[in-house]
Amino acid sequence: MAMIRLENLSKHYKVLNRSEGLSGALKDLFSRDYRIVKAVSDLSLEVNAGEIVGFVGPNGAGKSTTIKMMTGVLKPTSGLLTVNGRIPTKNRAQNMQEIGVVFGQRTQLWWDLPVIESFKILRQIYRVDQSSYNENMNIFEELIDLKALYSTPVRYLSLGQRMLCDIVASFLHNPKVIFLDEPTIGLDISIKSRIREVIKTLNEHKQTTIILTTHDLSDIEALCKRIVIIDKGTTVYDGSIQKVSSMFGAHRTLKIQLPPAEYLALDQLATSVNGHFSQASAITMEQSEEGWIHFTINQDEVHLMDVLNYIGHHYPVHDIKIEEISIDKIVKNIYEGGLA
Hints:
Distance between the termini: 30 Å
Number of domains: 2
CATH topology of the largest domain: Rossmann fold
Strand order of the largest sheet: 5-6-7-3-8-9
Structural class: alpha/beta
């Protein structure tokens, strides 16, 4: 039996079409002019015990709504949803006892209490027996030097330290499923690597099923063998992360900004780059505000440094940025047949 099962899951909202102005506000008090917003539509998915699945998509794709239904916060409009054989909204207390949740910008720890006191409170809330608690704390201390943080109030922890403690807290009661929402957001490379190692080790040791939502493709590559990409509430890809990496791992986005006096040269710059490189299909361009132009480059066909050297030789570059391809662009490429 799958640990998590979604079958034709949908969540629709009825939203009032509001009118403008004071008279419109008064009119809306009696209005029945509604529209239906489909946050999630006929989503089907199965996740086996012990899997780490990357659950990703652009903003507004329906990820958060789906996670809230899995945790029992929201009730589906239609379809079947079970977590560990239970319907979350009908068995909310039992479901909450067997899941853990980590949100990148929020904490489940008590802000003014030392870290160890937060762990002790969570132990009481989840009714973890003393021997299991001690065993888990020993495992965590082997992975992370937690003892140095025990006496520190949560409010004095750095973002990276707090995220490590939140992840420990989510595993404290031996949950069957953990939902990680942007666990490495805003962190530097070294602490990201440490958090990924902790998640991976705990998953292997405890066989915990993990659903990871993130906009950082490197998190998915480091932790997941399987990735589910959704957009507009439906699945657009469910399969191997290796296939996504092979298709898009060589892509990078080169962002170039010209001085204000050269803004009018942006169109000329795009045309010039496209004309110079014979593999024009390997470079896509998008112009943005404030003098920036974005080049998404497939490095299997065109080297990013060749494009950068060409631009630097012909134009007065004011600033540059180099980024991995975004989830939004991956979704766009999938729609265009990139993983067909």
